[in-house]
């Protein structure tokens, strides 16, 4: 049994389906990226999982227990940072952790947690939260999400406001916790960073899951793409189209995908005496794959 199971969950706002028969699982120790455009249903899904919002049908189960708007007994081992953390301006970082740990039987060690999330340095100390930067507040929010020693952590835009070093450190923290068995469900617009982190992806569009896959499986379908500049791009385009490859000319450069390999393309160009003046290869890009998938899904409406 998966740690988190979301089965055929539906939620409507008027006539609009915010969640349309949503189903996916999160396994213990796995880092799952919930990905989609603004308004796709990511935050709604996260809020339903954390019991912050009701849903009309379906079932959400965490660690074998049902989760609903009126049943929060399963949530003691779920940590979350959805949208912006609830920060009190006149409390210090440590006072926040003590506050959020009040209803927790076995909270995390404050000192260790502050060190892990980098809120124990001189920038925090006895300073009140009203003097924190956005990045400092974000790190405090992540620490709050971990205060219960959760089995599952749900993070919505956790890298928002963080500098590159802090993003790297957060990535390492999440990986280390996942190795200890903690599961993560993460939504982020920083797809390049998410790509470096997640084990699985769940793609949502218009409230409906359009694909779930491991990150490796997801990229199997992401064909290699080559960008050429030749001495005759128009003739090269015609050759590619005759070969039934996907080919376009964009900003004066020829883009090709669908060939078995690069050598096949080069051989075809050489046979036609077309000279390659520049060549770039791209593959395994989460953003490009996502955009292609969303475009295909939107066309199918």
From TrEMBL:
Residues annotated as domain ABC transporter: 4-231
Single GO molecular function: ATP binding
Classification via InterPro entries: AAA+_ATPase, ABC_transporter-like_ATP-bd, ABC_transporter-like_CS, P-loop_NTPase
EC top class named in words: hydrolase
Keyword terms of this UniProt record: ATP-binding, Hydrolase, Nucleotide-binding, Transport
PROSITE patterns, per the entry: ABC_TRANSPORTER_1, ABC_TRANSPORTER_2
This protein's name: Lipopolysaccharide export system ATP-binding protein LptB
EC number(s) reported in the record: 3.6.3.-
One Pfam family from the record: ABC_tran
The UniProt record lists the keyword Transport: yes
Family the entry assigns: Belongs to the ABC transporter superfamily.
Protein source organism: Leuconostoc suionicum
């Amino acid at each position: 049994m998966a740690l988190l199971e979301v089965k055929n969950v539906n939620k409507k706002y008027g006539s609009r389906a915010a969640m349309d028969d949503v189903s996916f699982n999160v396994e213990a120790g796995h880092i799952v990226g919930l990905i989609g455009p603004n308004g796709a249903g990511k935050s709604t899904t996260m809020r339903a999982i954390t019991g912050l919002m009701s849903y009309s049908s379906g079932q959400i189960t965490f660690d074998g227990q049902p989760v609903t708007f009126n049943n929060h007994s399963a949530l003691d081992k779920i940590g979350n940072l959805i949208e912006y953390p609830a920060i009190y301006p006149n409390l210090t970082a440590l006072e926040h952790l003590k506050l959020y740990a009040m209803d927790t039987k076995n909270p995390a060690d404050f000192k260790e947690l502050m060190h892990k999330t980098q809120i124990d340095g001189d920038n925090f100390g006895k300073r009140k939260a009203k003097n924190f930067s956005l990045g400092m507040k974000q790190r405090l929010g992540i620490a709050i999400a971990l205060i219960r020693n959760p089995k599952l952590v749900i993070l919505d835009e956790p890298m928002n406001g963080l500098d590159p070093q802090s993003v790297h450190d957060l990535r390492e923290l999440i990986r280390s916790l996942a190795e200890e068995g903690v599961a993560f469900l993460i939504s982020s617009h920083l797809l390049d960073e998410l790509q470096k982190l997640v084990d699985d992806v769940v793609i949502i569009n218009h409230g409906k899951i359009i694909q779930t896959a491991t990150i490796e499986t997801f990229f199997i379908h992401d064909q290699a793409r080559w960008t050429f500049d030749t001495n005759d791009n128009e003739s090269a385009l015609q050759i590619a189209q005759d070969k039934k490859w996907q080919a376009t000319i964009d900003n004066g450069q020829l883009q090709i995908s669908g060939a078995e390999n690069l050598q096949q393309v080069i051989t075809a160009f050489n046979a036609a005496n077309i000279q390659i003046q520049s060549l770039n290869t791209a593959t395994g890009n989460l953003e490009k794959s996502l955009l292609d998938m969303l475009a295909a899904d939107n066309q199918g409406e």
